Amino acid sequence: MTAAAQRRAAADAPARRPLPVRVTWLLVALLGLGLFGAASIVFGVRAVTWPDVVGGLSGASDTIAEAAVLKRVPRTILAMLVGAALGLAGAVMQGVTRNPLADPGILGVTTGASLAVVTGIAFFGLSAPTTVTWVAIGGAAAAAVLVYTVGSLGRGGATPLKLALAGAASSAAFSSLISAVLLPRIDALTQFRFWQVGGVGGAEPGRILQVLPFLLVGAVVCVLSARGMNSLALGDDVAAGLGAHVGRTRLVAAAGAILLCGAATAVAGPIGFVGLAVPHLCRLLVGLDHRWLLPASAVAGAALLTGADVIGRLVARPAEVDVGIITAIVGAPIFIWIVRRQKVRAL
User: TM spans, by residue (predicted)?
Assistant: First the structure.
């Protein structure tokens, strides 16, 4: 092992966690996810009782309260799926780029997916859910390639700062293009102005089933890339010396993350900061091993987004605050904290 790799291993040693600690924190995250899921079904604009919850979960809709419970179930499931997808994608992006600022929103991936969806619907009349999902995935992939290419220009290659700046500039450009597409079309603007904020309020079982295969495939690809990302954390030269296929590992893991981002954006709109905050929190709890970090990020992301959705329903009753606004309020201070850290150059 080279001297640089030894120094990195020594620096990372305090971040390693014993197996019982990792298992405990993962169980805590699962418990938190269960509690937030129960709260998502119980709490909302309309108060429900325990008999209403039992009746709604059994499929009854005789009363307004039971119908409300029945409607909250797919919303809760969608929040969990989207949160898990964004948390997992954020951890993979940070591992692949070794960039602590990597996030589907900050790097412009979700905004690129949004631009592709809005353009496809406004100009080509796309309406089939599966087609919209594929278009969102294509937009996310194109945005990721553009940001990484721009961030790699010049001396030093794709540094965290250059990637963050390229992502911010691209995201701003994509947002302007989205506005340019929507403003002359009042019907489209009315239809998508809430979707652009990011939310799970319009969840439907059929829509969830349409996007579920994309999320599952993306998650499997990312999890199977965990061992390779552990090698990438040592640096490209060391990883290659250990027998890892650096380029292939990056490409496969990034493809899984883009699949997750595109599918999540297609079904819930662009939701930011989940993929930024969750992996950093999970590294503090379960350590740097991606074999543990990725599942923990998925569970914690699901819990965070589900909890944010519950908060959005309660803080402005009888109105609702979209979950994308809540996650931005939570994630912005974390982003500032990460930027101000001394060791922000690379993971």
Answer: 23-45, 76-93, 105-126, 132-151, 163-186, 206-226, 251-272, 292-311, 323-340
pTM: 0.86
Question: Does residue 55 sit within a domain?
Answer: no
State which residues form the domain around 189: 72-340
> Within a domain: residue 128?
yes
Residue 263 belongs to domain with CATH number: 1.10.3470.10
User: Is residue 299 assigned to a domain?
Assistant: yes
Which tokens is 104 given? 């589907």
16 lies in a domain? no
- Give the C-alpha separation, 106 to 261, whole Å: 12
**257 and 222 in contact (C-beta within 8 Å)?**
yes
Q: Mean pLDDT in each 10-residue stretch from start to end of the chain (347 residues)?
A: 46 61 93 93 79 76 76 91 94 86 82 88 79 90 89 74 83 88 72 64 83 94 90 77 77 92 88 87 89 94 93 82 83 72 51
